[in-house]
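Researcher: I'm preparing a figure for a lab meeting and need a structural model of a single chain. I don't have an experimental structure, so a prediction will have to do for now. The sequence is pasted below. Please return the structure as tokens so I can convert it later.
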Amino acid sequence: MEEAVKAALNEIRPMLQADGGDVEFVSVSPDGKVCVRLTGACGGCPMATMTLKVGVESHLKKKVPGVTEVVQA
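Model: Understood. Here is the structure written out token by token.
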């Protein structure tokens, strides 16, 4: 599952980079909880929670079977 998560993150990375941010993979638990770190402009953005849940989490849930949640490290 880890490789599939990393591949899915690479698909959305250009959108985050276009706004001066990025996303780093931290870990994935056996129950499907993915831990990531938003960096750059995304790290301190007031919309970071929205980006994490609506952007990153929804994309990973569509692309990677078994992902249950995405949380910030």
